[in-house]
Amino acid sequence: MLKTTFPCELLSWDDMYEYGRILAGKIREEHFKPDAIVAIARGGYVPARTLCDFLMVDRLYSVQVRHWGQTGQRSKNAKLWHPLSADLKGKNVLIVDDLADTGQSFDIALAEVRKHDPKAVKTAALFVLENSKFVPDYYVAMRPWKWFVFPWNFTEDACNLVAGLFEAKSEDKKSIDMVAEELFVKHGIRLPQDKLKGVMTELVHRKVLQPYWVSGHLMRWMAAQTPKGGTLHGGRKIVKR
Fold first, then answer.
1. Which segments of the chain does DSSP mark as H helices, in order?
2. Cα distance between residue 237 and residue 227, in whole Å
3. Treating both helix axes as pointing N-terminal to C-terminal, what angle do 154-163 and 176-187 enclose, rounded to 10 degrees?
4. What is the model's pLDDT at position 76?
5. Strands laid side by side in the 92-100 sheet
6. Which of 17, 32, 147, 183 is found 20 to 30 A from 72 (Cα to Cα)?
7. How much is the pTM?
8. In the beta sheet, which residues pair with residue 129?
9. 125 forms bridges with which residues in the sheet?
10. CB-CB contact of 90 with 103 (8 Å)
11. For residue 66, what pLDDT band results from cuts at 50, 70 and 90?
12. How far apart (Å, rounded) are the C-alpha atoms in residues 39 and 74?
């Protein structure tokens, strides 16, 4: 489970539309007209599709590069997971990702695209982090390092962040208000209570957490474990007396 403390920022679908609109405007200003867009999977899928919409591009391809494992935890080196399969010969190509962090993903994607003999290649991202050694041709803003919780990976990130607040095998029990406050203290984000309840329910489904009931009422949550003298049934702790 995640145990470190680091800053995060929540982004909405409305944010993504607006950032996509701004990014498309910057590309138009330089009169670059892509014939094809290549998304760096997985984070680049939605921004790439958004740019297809704004820039009226029909050809959308992807190349998968993996650099990050669990939320906030980076692998040592980025690796090509799925090569590009597309006819890009003589075409203007735009490579898109959600952000440039170390820049390794863009380096790998660029090398992969250039194997296909394009006419010209440009790169674009929503954000560039200040620590990145690679700066795309187009981006919306340069930001200090933090973990961006994009709407397309909200459940994955929120589950990892919340799970990191619970010690494995510990019987410490936390209310939803306690979890909400810890998320703010450790990561600087506040989740609406309905969304946080959904995350807790998902973690129970994944057998990471289990609910703690008092007199038939759900009061708190704790790390999932097989209780002494009892069993787990439907996520509820059943104690034999």
1. 13-29, 45-55, 104-114, 154-163, 176-187, 193-205
2. 7
3. 100
4. 58
5. 74-82, 59-68, 36-41, 92-100, 120-129, 138-143
6. 17
7. 0.83
8. 143
9. 97, 139
10. no
11. confident
12. 20
